[in-house]
Structure formats: structure tokens, C-alpha cells
Amino acid sequence: MLVTLAGCGGEVLLERTTGEGGRREARGTSGTNGPSEAVKGACTAYCNSFSSSCGPVGKCPDRCLEHASYAGPCEVEYLALLTCHASLVKAPPDCRLRGCEAEVEELLACIYPSGPCALRECRRGIGPEPPMSCSVNCGGVTYESICGELGSDYPIDCVCSVDGAIVGECQVLTRTGHFDFDCCSAFFADSEQRR
To answer: For 108-132, how does the pLDDT look when each residue is reduced to its tens digit (9 = 90+)?
Structure first.
């Protein structure tokens, strides 16, 4: 599975190759107290590290924290990835972050516990379709988030399903919230544990 972490300007290819699993139906809404102080510090370090080598990156801390808020039970894995990325030497003109494959693997194994995963696909809706839908098949299990209604703007509501069974509802705060993973991630990570 390839996913892009675009929270702070540069792109990171995330790849996942392990895991097995199934599905369980559950219903709920996402609730989070926000990222921990450790993750907030890691987002700051990551953004500072990137901008010192590759120039200002705009709303990097906000984007990083938004993604962290979606990690749920995978916050530890997200923290490890941010810490690794902050330690990398980056150089223009490319500025891509490479070298944290183990951390990437751990994060995706947490989010999509049934892996291995195909490419995560997101598409913008046309006409009466929802503005955004993303899905990925991992080990024969389909994880899907369908977000928003026609004409809606951010934040938008998302319905999260595993193999067609609704496992939660949440909100994506901004357009950048659809990159790499979205607010359904915590429900996807939880779905395997609840089976």
C-alpha cells in the first residue's frame, strides 16, 4: 500500500505489507482529547526540521496535529514516525522524507490491522455523490470512509465502514485531512480489536 503523508510540505511514501483479519460491526462517534503533548512536540520538531532544510512549509504544525488527532489507538506509532522524520537529513530540491520504513510499517499495521493492503484510493464525488470517498482493501477486508454531502464544506462528516458494516462516524476538519489517512483511522484500528 502506498499512501502520502503530506502534512508538512514534503511527501512521504507509506508502504504496508503485513497482517490478516476480518470485520466486525459496531457503531459510534469519534471522540478524542486531541494529540498528546509528546505528539505536539514531535509535530513541532518535524515541521522545524523540515523548514530549516527545505524552507517554510505554511500550516505544517496544524496539518500534523490534525492527522495526529485521527490516529486514535495508533498515536504511539504516529509519534514514532514523526520522531523519525524529524531526525532525517533533508535536502533540496527534492526534500522527500525517506528512511523511516519500519515506522511507516508499524503505523499502517495499526490503522489497517487486516493487511496486506492495496493502494488506498480516494476520489472526489461528481454530481450527487459525496465530496470525498476513500477505500483500501487489506487482506480481503475493505476499509472505506465516505465523507460529506453535495455542496458541503469543511469540516465534513464521514461514515466509516469495514466490509460494508458501519464502524463509526467522525469529522474531517480540512481538505488536507484526506491525505494518507483520515478521521476513520481510529475506527479501522479498533475494528480488529473488537472482533
So the answer is: 899 999 878 888 898 888 877 777 8
Closest to 188 (Cα-Cα) out of 142, 132, 122: 142
Round to whole Å and give the CA distance between 75 and 37: 11
Cell 528512511, residue located: 99
Angle at the Cα of 176 from the Cα atoms of 39 and 38, rounded to 5 degrees = 0
Which pLDDT tens digit goes with each residue over 90-113?
777 667 767 888 998 899 899 999
Q: Which residues does residue 117 pair with via DSSP β-bridges, in sequence order? A: 138
Residues contacting residue 15 through CB under 8 Å, at least 6 positions apart: 1, 2, 101, 104, 105, 108
Kind of pairing between the strands at 141-147 and 132-138: antiparallel
101 Ramachandran zone, left/alpha/beta (phi>0; psi -120 to 50): alpha
Specify the DSSP class assigned to residue 29.
B
